[in-house]
Give the backbone structure.
Amino acid sequence: MLEIVGPYIPLILKGTWVTIAVSLVSLAVACLLGLLGAWAKLSHSKLANTVAGAYTTLVRGVPDLVLMTIIFFGGQIGINSLVEAMGWDIYIEIDAFTAGVVSIGFIYGAYMTETFRGAILAVPKGQIEAAVACGMTRPTIFRRVLGPQMMRFALPSFGNNWLVLLKTTALVSVLGVQELVYNAFSAGRSTREMFTFMLVVCVIYLILTTISTTALRWAEHRYSVGVRRA
Amino acid sequence: MGESTPAIVVEDLYKRFGALEVLKGISLRAHEHEVISILGSSGSGKSTFLRCINLLETPESGKVYVQGELIRMRPKRGDRIVPEDLKQVERIRSKLAMVFQQFNLWAHMTVMENVIEAPLRVLKVPKAEALERGEQMLQKVGMYDRRDYYPAHLSGGQQQRAAIARALAMEPQVMLFDEPTSALDPELVGEVLKVMRGLAEEGRTMLVVTHEMDFAREVSSQVMFMHEGLVEEYGIPSEVFERPKSERFRQFMSGLLR
């Protein structure tokens, strides 16, 4: 098996690295959108409620692959007609990596919205009131009281989202991003050993998810400080 | 100018929750070093009144002055008002420490971390100074030996004493107590009341929503009795308890004695 896989190890490792990069950047986008979405859903503004509601409904109702394709091609057309409308004579090309990251971030932002919304609601109101009554500013309250306490409630569902996101990045191969699955497919086709290379992909994904699970378990422990264990 | 500026002045406060009118025009004047006990049966609006002073609840109308400074409000669609300047509200809140019925110690911080948090983040006190002050306050309430405990590992009475230390660490002008002993087991009430008596003796300005009649009678300089969103009885404890003018207050008292 090694003589089949051996020559392709650099290609596979490069793909693995791209997979990790796509996942982490997408996660950052998703967390940002998730916090924004949770804030919008919990705010008193009707407009913010409606926009956030439409966002989660759309994402949850449409297949990831379809959304991704729409964002990739639609985004390209959209941005360029916008640029044209502004009267600028340039053509902007969105590269596949950016499109992939934006669309996966956009999709998982919707799931993170629900995760964070639930976690914020789970923090007892009195914890926030005590901070407000001291005269803390809203950013300080988020950073010092709400944030650390909602982590504990958010982490289990956050962890699930992350694992699914990590695996969903395989879809960006469709856009031509040369990540793990894309490169393994190329290798499989040229050697006619598709099965072998898919096994390699399996193992690499398992390693990544195992590392993730360990990190998440550590984080859950870290953010359970002060919680009485039965 | 014979008199100093009152610590708190409240004028004609109205508050509604939906169709329910909770406060129907409440006024109050608290001078420095005064302890005012606010009594009333549940639903009388006494906690809501206290929470309107530091704007944990926003009143429909009315004015609140803290050390002569008016909390500026502006009208917002319909008949609501909102703070004009959140920065001003935050600054005033930092002078009014609150002690809650459910303690509300931050669960992810130890006792000492709870006590130094607001001085560090709000008053921007240097850490060494905050720790030193925290130490003093915890000693005052008898919680110094528990400074590294998390709230979940303390009894209710210990949590409330730690919460009082947290309030004291802000060196507040006025302390607001919202039923500080109501969530405690009867045998734990005494230790908290003892700390509060000590604070009153130090001459701290305190507004205390409570059901503890002995505390109201013996410690406070003024007693205010609320019923259905109105002040029914107000005066010095000896007057109010010996010769109540309001029939409601008499009923309230006899109900407690039974």
In short: Residues 11 and 63 of chain B are 5 Å apart (CA to CA).
